[in-house]
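Blackboard transcription, Thursday session:
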Amino acid sequence: MVSEKLKGVILRELDLEDFDMVDSTTASMVPGWDSLKHVRIIMAIEEAYDLRFRTLEVIRLKSVGELQALIDKKTA
Amino acid sequence: MARFLLKLLLFSALILGVDRLAGTLLKHGLDRYFGFDRNAAVLLVGHSHTMLGIDAELLQRSLGMPVAKYAVNGANVFDRQAMLRHYFSDYPGKVKLVVYDVDDHTFTGDGLSSNSYRLFYPYIGNADMNGYLQANAGSWSEYFSRRVLLSPRFNAAVLNLSLRGLLGLFDNFKTGSVDIPSLEKDILAGRRPGILIDPEYVNAMEETIQLVRSRGARLVFCYIPSVDLLSRMDPARHTQVVDMFQRYDRNDEGVEFYNYQEIFGSRYELFSDAIHLNREGQQIFTAQLKMDLQHTLSR
Amino acid sequence: MTFNSLAFFLFLPAVWLAFYAAADRWRWLVLLLASYAFYAALGVPYLLGVLLGVTAITYGCGLMLARAGEETKRKRIFWGSVGVNLSVLVGMKYLPFLEENLKRLFHLGQKSPLLPVHPVLVGIGVSYFVLQAISYLADIYLETQEPETHVGRFALYMAFFPKLLQGPIERAGDLLPQLKQTYRFDYDNMRSGLLLFAWGLVKKVVIADRLALYVNAVYGDVHAWSGLPLLLATYFYALQIYFDFSGYTDMALGVGRLFNLRLTQNFKSPYLATSVADFWRRWHISFSRWILDYIFKPLQMIWRNWGTKGTAGMAMALLVTFLASGVWHGARWGYVVWGVTHGIYLAVSVYWNPHQKKLHKVLRLEKTGVLRVWQMVVTFHLICFSWIFFRAESLSDALYVMNNLFTGLGNYRGFLFQHGTTELAALLMGLSIIFAVRLLWTSGREMPDYPGWLRWAGYVSLVEWLLLFNIDIQRAFLYFQF
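(Written on the board underneath:)
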């Protein structure tokens, strides 16, 4: 389940109005989500949620759903 | 699968057919270019100095006897021996006189590509030439692929000659004039090859003399001129080489040496580059050569 | 044996027939043995040993890595196995280079007790399969890939002969599943595979090797030339390396298709790139994806807090990545400078891009054809400049070329006609045909759309062209004016 907050952060970084983000969404599906933006998104999430990711955790992520799960785990 | 194999076989047959066609056509062009179809009485043998320096058509008209010009870029002493063997075995009995071009670098290997034998693959069908090619081939696959197929026998240099033969373009097209200042710079910078006398080459030359004489033909060593700045680079060795040819001349009355270096070496306007005559040079030189040959032939 | 040798023309059909005749469950074995035989045929026996060693270690560590649950253990296994692979690569490729430079640095003599004497090791193929092994391990570590349990199939994944010597570097996720599929004779694959192979062969032995004749004359003796010939030789080299490498790749992919295997496409019109970043999405794609995924992305993530919004971190990550790229290409300073040059291009563009976008908007050039052409021309020249360092035989040669590119016309006639008019005509004709075919191809009409007789005429002409105009670079008849 992708939270509205996470969706908001991502859309803002990508400068998109809306995008249907579900658990199985991957970066390649979303317009503009390249490697440069990817880092910016991660940084924006760290700021929004006041947490810090370890490189290994973030490199392994394959979809938005996994990203959400990781955030949930770190904020719990 | 069966359909595929059948198509593959058909395709291979087609390729072999096209290869055969192309190869035969190109060889025909090459033969024409060299003038093999003329039953030559005078055979010119050499490399680009002859190709550009002697107008075979003019010579043929003035001498009143058929002339063939068997000359290819870069042909060295060994190549020419094979060339002569090839010609004598394929066209026996007709040649009365061989004109063989020489210069300061006749006995040198340096500066010439060691792969000049490759130019003669089109004549792999001749037993003598075949032996020469087999002895020199870089690898079994190189030789074998040219034995079986015809097209690979022709590289760009030879292809040029074949096409010219097919189209009847025998002339020297070079009209420019040699750039003397830049030649002087090259000489000073040491970029021109030096003169060497390699005993293996001398050996091959002496075998060649024997070969020509044994076929009942006369031999004329013709020093086709180069820009004299080159022969002045190493006057001692230049004289050495000239002396060798004069010695061959003296030792056998069937062998002569025509040295044109003195007469033409300083006439820079006749050269398109340091070692080749241009169109005008070719005409003037051939006229001179013709007179000397007429004189020799009448004796 | 190389692809353009008689031996290979006999090897390939033999292997294919054996492959076809074998029972499906043994086909992997046929290919594996053929691949080892292919590698052994190079005549450097220890290379096969290296391949087997790397294969065994990577296979074993892959399984261990997947089974290990605990993070520290996983880390140890991963970095340990990567370390082994890298030391193999470094040992084979760079030891002589390191030794040479250390000697110079410390003025050590020939028989220094510090540096052991050893023969120069040849490492054809090692650079490629080591990277492939590392990508396999990394994918398991990052949990994007399950380890391969069938040791034979894994060995084939590592050794498959079309990609063994020069890549493409195959991802486990791309190649392993294909190796598991049942083989069924596919006419289209056979036809397109052979065509692709022939086309690649033409690119290499008719075009690339011919361009090399001209390039070698200049880069083999740079001080004899000045001005336009240096510029032309550099352009020629840009074309030569493209046709050589993409020709080889076409041959590899074509052979793969004969066995119903789709290898990765390595090239996508690289000189049509509109930026250096775009170039790297089109050139040696399997390699640039590798450095992107396994060097750049992790570094970029680690350094994300450098600079505003991580820009400095990204620039640094690019520099390091492309330095690694340069070093990987070989143990010469020229390669290192080449790599760093690309790193600088990309790092600079990270800062320049936002300004560039604004500039285009202001000049109202956005998305125009003119802009695209301009970008292609500029990018091509940036790339050509970097090729000077890649090709030159020494750094001083490269600097000489750089400083003398625009000194005038120079002896450009000598350069163009050094091998005679026919050779030049053959080159220009060849290039024109390639471009014409490319245009036709991209215009949309697929091969089978053309009538059969026309297609066959094309195939026959292609092969005849190959037979007449191939250059044997080792034994090229170098036209001297005699």
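Lecturer's comment: The first strand of chain B starts at residue 42 and ends at 46.
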